[in-house]
Please model this.
Amino acid sequence: MMKRRSGLSTIKFVKNNKKKVFIVVISLTICIMCMYIVNFMLQSIKESGKPICENIPRKVIYARLSNKTLGVSTQGMTEEEATEAIRNKRDEFIKKLESVDSIRNVYYTQCLNGVIRNVVGEYWYVQPLLDVEKIPDYLDFIGAKLISGRLPQTDGEIVLDSVVMKNNGYHVGDYYLKDTWDEGFKIVGELESDSYALCGTANGFMNSGWCFVIEHDGSIQDLYKVLEKIGVNTSEDDVIEDAIHVKQDYDREVGDIIDSIVDYMFLGVAILVAFAILILFISFIRERQNELCLYRSIGFSRGDIYILMMKELGFMFGLSVVLSVIATYGTMVFMRAVMFVPRGLICAYYYPDSIIAIIAMLVLILGILQLPVIYTISRIRTVDKMED
Model:
């Protein structure tokens, strides 16, 4: 009996069905590779956004507060009186915030939006425009170092993170977002930072808005709680970019959408591939009816035949996995070198959730293929009975 079982060789099946095995293996390999590569590209959008939602709020919080929150009512005031009242309330608010131990400095200043352009879409984020004398201290606080050029010395000059410069194709001496600001902001220096830093001087009232810029020691995750403690009642019109709320906005507008796209993509591909492989495998089995009946006739049990067919499937799926890992890794390395690094984008190779999803897909397909295998084996007859 042992000799008979050794005769049911997977290698013989592969040799006799090279073309069919090749089709299955290549199809699965391409499928797995495409799934992971698409996920790799989409997830790079999330990776490139991490410095914005994690590193910037770690030291600096931006807040746009309404007059209601500041406690200002300008009803019945002249324009000059209203301006003065708002200014006084802002100064009071700044003093309250700076009385908090974990807060280092608070500025109310014009801001300029930075931008990171991804493979798909782009991120915009707020950065400050400060007085010339405050810029060195601010850059030192956020850990940004000047690596080329100089610091701003006059109106409308900025220094910009090297990754952002690479991403947008800028060089020292270029004008920042020229389509928007014309020659309003000139890049005079290049920075090295972990937060896509941008800092410079205002040029009149060319700006992306006014903000309270709050430097803190890293312990403030939720500014609303701090404001509540110092007696400031916030309103729904306020916009606060602290660690918690930037992350929530990021997850809602980017992270959750990408995760949903990946989930639906994996589900759709799994269904299509399972259906295609099922049809292909059923055709294989039909063509092997005589072969399987012969095995049964010479003494092999249905269990022996089932194990043989599972080994054949295991060989094809295993080879597909190995080839897809090699091809996927090589493609990702190439894409990183050609598409991501030149544009200053961040990407990662290892995504456990996606790997688990792909493994689950393969297990699902193997499970579905059990149906035609079991049905076929249950109907196998010996050669002598086939003649009846």
